[in-house]
Amino acid sequence: MKKPAAPRPERLAAGLIESIDFHGLAALRLRVPSGASAVVSAFGAQVLSWTTADGRERLFLSERAVFDGSAPIRGGVPVCFPQFAGLGPLPKHGFARTRTWSESGRSTGKDYAMVSFALEDDAATRRLWPHAFRAEITVNLENNRLDVELGVDNTGDAPLAFTAALHSYLRVTEVEDSYLEGLYGHEYRDAARGDRIVKDTGTRLGFEGETDRVYHGVRRPLLVNAGNLSLGLDQEGFPDVVVWNPWVERCAALADMAPSGWRHLLCVEAAAVRVPVTLAAGEGWSGRQSLVPV
Ligand SMILES: O=P(O)(O)OC[C@H]1O[C@@H](O)[C@H](O)[C@@H](O)[C@@H]1O
């Protein structure tokens, strides 16, 4: 018997933004005429899904991710701000990923849909980090790319310094069959091996164990070679690139990861880590990561 045809998604004439509930969280779904879509939650201003025009999900989101606000969401593009990892006195990766941000703008056009979320200091952030600031995440979905930008303004009257990252969890079919190109000749701090500084001499980086590296001063675009989930990555403003995969044992210790979850992710993060960003009173900074299917 002939199978009934799957319903065809309606073809959009222009970008569209809809409010949705995503695992109980308030979120926006962005859609563009190519068929690509993305989901961004107000919690963490976090991209939680990006499906390209070919129907493939490109971001890893853990099947055990917690969506009740009690913990950061494991997957998508968490925003690490104003502290990367444990490089300071704040909670790991800062507080931005566990705060609810406010929508600060949206627009659509023939071939894009864009939303922004803002986070400003309040009594709770000042208790942790005594600075006046305004951070903004802008997510721009186009037919064939996704751009995520973090902007930070020092709204106080004293200088401030921060480290930050867009902690993108890229979905791969099998991390052991994936590799990353573009880091040749760069120095990195190997956080999985006692923070030693190493110079990368391989033309491509493969994955055979726990990987936790901060590459310094990366100026070239990168290529994640992962079969039909391959992506080109580019960044501006962020000088560093973090490459992370927890592998078997560390993954098993993470309550919000399935035991085999590590196989299906590769974090390639646009980051400002080695040298903190310093802003004088009234000064601003921005950094962007762009993901393009290849
Ligand atoms: O489990 P978390 O807090 O989300 O952090 C995940 C990882 O994030 C990476 O960016 C860090 O380099 C790792 O050291 C860290 O373990």
Automatic annotation (TrEMBL):
It catalyses: alpha-D-glucose 6-phosphate = beta-D-glucose 6-phosphate. SUPFAM superfamilies: Galactose mutarotase-like (SSF74650). Its EC number is 5.1.3.15. GO terms for biological process: carbohydrate metabolic process. GO terms for cellular component: cytoplasm. Keywords: Isomerase. The active site is at H167, E269. Pfam families: Aldose_epim. One of its GO terms (molecular function) is glucose-6-phosphate 1-epimerase activity. InterPro entries: Aldose_1/G6P_1-epimerase (IPR008183), G6P_1-epimerase (IPR025532), Gal_mutarotase_sf_dom (IPR011013), GH-type_carb-bd (IPR014718). Belongs to the glucose-6-phosphate 1-epimerase family. This is Putative glucose-6-phosphate 1-epimerase.
